[in-house]
Specification:
Blueprint (H helix, E strand, L loop, with lengths): L3 E10 L5 H12 L2 E6 L5 E7 L1 H13 L5 E10 L7 E3 L1
Parallel strand pairs: 2-5
Antiparallel strand pairs: 1-3, 1-4, 2-3
Enzyme class: hydrolase
EC number: 3.6.1.7
InterPro entries: Acylphosphatase, Acylphosphatase-like_dom, Acylphosphatase-like_dom_sf, Acylphosphatase_CS
């Protein structure tokens, strides 16, 4: 299957609640690469690279996030493929 990348921006109560760490754990379970990083405005950016099925699983996960978080909005943008080694927390 073709690999592609999607950049998600997650809005809500997503900083200071372990969102990036739990997202990284789920991403590694799914087998995708990329990163999760806090943004200055309180949102979290999640870059995910994988096949269509993997990207769909990550999309479903990010719609709710971990139990400690509250996701108010999730935006999704396709970006050019970039090779990442693993899934980083930035």
């Amino acid at each position: 299957m073709a690999q592609r990348c999607v950049k998600f921006v997650v809005e809500g109560r997503v900083q200071g609640v372990g969102f990036r760490y739990q997202t990284a754990y789920f991403a590694l379970k799914v087998g995708v690469t990329g990163y999760a990083k806090n943004l200055w405005d309180g949102d979290v950016e999640v870059m995910v690279c994988g096949n269509d099925a993997q990207l769909e699983r990550m999309d479903e996960y990010l719609q709710d996030g971990p139990p400690s978080a509250r996701v108010d909005n999730l935006s999704r943008e396709s970006v050019d493929f970039k090779h990442f080694k693993g899934f980083d927390i930035l």
